[in-house]
Amino acid sequence: MKNFQFFPPRLSAVISNSLVILSPVKVSAAFILTGIFPILSFAQTPTLSNLTVSAVLDGYYQSEDRLMTERVKGFGLGETELAFSASIDDMFFGKLTTVFESHDGESEVNVEEAFIQTMALPNGFTLRAGRFLSDIGYLNNQHLHTDAFTSRPSAYRAFLGGHYFDDGLRVSYIAPTDLYWTMGAEAFAGDSLRAEDETGEREFDSTGVYTAFTKIGGDIGIESSWQIGASYLRNENGQLSPEDHDEEGGEDTHAHSASYTGKNTLVADFVYKWAPNGNYKYQHLTLSAEYFRVSDFMLPELHDAHAEEEHENEESNTKDYHQAWYVSGVYQFSPHWSAGLRYGKLDSQLQHDAHFDQQTLKETELSIAWHNSHFSTVRVEFSHQSNVGFESVENDNVITLQYVMAMGAHNAHQF
């Protein structure tokens, strides 16, 4: 029985005894192996074979501070991620993502995702419940480590706290059309998008944020693809009151909270991708742009007081909305090198009692990245920020050196 020594000792004994019993009978080798291999499969299959575990390491050095970013001057830990995901059964999928960050010299652990999602609803419908990334805009449903730049555009940092994740419920639908067409709606707690309450006496809605979104996309030949999207976010707790003095100063509002809020936010986005012969591995180009408009950011009593002051001050040119936009181009010109250029502008209003002062932030960013593989990236970024009305940071040039390393299996990236 030496032929069976590659099996574990106890299993070899079982097989040997079985063959001894069967030896008086003419049994084919195929029949014997047919009975043996199910035993081996059962013995070697782990109980949690469908669990996917992944980790992403994000570290950086930054030469200066930037407005409304988690990354600060000096060495730091970016959004380092540990994720678990699995098909729970034939009906549900689940995911847990924890994020490790450093802030003011202290390490913090946050739960970014903890949700379940249906897998077998009919007619293209899907439900998701728990904590997850909202699907508004183009970038928000993507993890930060997938970005081609070290920080999100100022529109995201100002209005969504970098990237908006929350506790809630989503229903989405994929239409049976030739073009890719998806739509959906979400309801969230909305704590990180609340206007600040200095007195602590304001009553907030427990379900404060509602969103609706749609995305349409398709191919142009075999080398190009496109997608356009429109999103709406209604924030029941986003309006400022007269007591919220200097709530929006452009400072670093930690815990991913928005610096500027309002009742209604509209987002439009566009993405175009190109790759020779449709092969993205060696060369590809991505062009993207988004526009945000946040309106109705004053409660009626503050709006009336502001209107009266505006009437008395003829020189004032403040607006009754915030807005921001960016355009971006990223070109991977070889399997190991890519370069990106992004320009963005933020126009916001800073509250002082019942009047508002205009703020403007312009950012230009050039990113050059080296990818040893799909799992490792080293990036250097040169950014220039030019601002008017922000007191905490002067116009400056910033250099950021970053590494992003992925370990283990990782879900496919969004379009």
Describe what you observe in this structure.
With 415 residues, this protein is mainly beta. It folds into 2 domains: 1-45, no CATH class; 52-408, Porin. Helix content is 12%, strand content 48%. The chain has 4 helices and 17 strands. The chain has helices at residues 9-22, 29-44, 154-159, 300-312, and strands at residues 52-62, 74-77, 80-87, 92-103, 106-118, 125-133, 165-174, 180-188, 209-220, 224-235, 264-274, 284-295, 321-334, 337-352, 355-373, 376-388, 396-408. Strands 1-3-4-5-6-7-8-9-10-11-12-13-14-15-16-17 form a 16-stranded antiparallel beta barrel. Strand 4 (92-103) and strand 5 form a beta hairpin. It is globular.
Quickly list its features.
single chain, about 425 residues, mainly beta, Porin, 2 domains, 16-stranded antiparallel barrel, 4 helices, about 10% helix, Porin_dom_sf, Zinc-regulated TonB-dependent outer membrane receptor
Please describe the topology of this protein.
Elements: H1 9-22, H2 29-44, E1 52-62, E2 74-77, E3 80-87, E4 92-103, E5 106-118, E6 125-133, H3 154-159, E7 165-174, E8 180-188, E9 209-220, E10 224-235, E11 264-274, E12 284-295, H4 300-312, E13 321-334, E14 337-352, E15 355-373, E16 376-388, E17 396-408
Organism: Cognaticolwellia beringensis
Region (Disordered): 236-258
Protein name: Zinc-regulated TonB-dependent outer membrane receptor
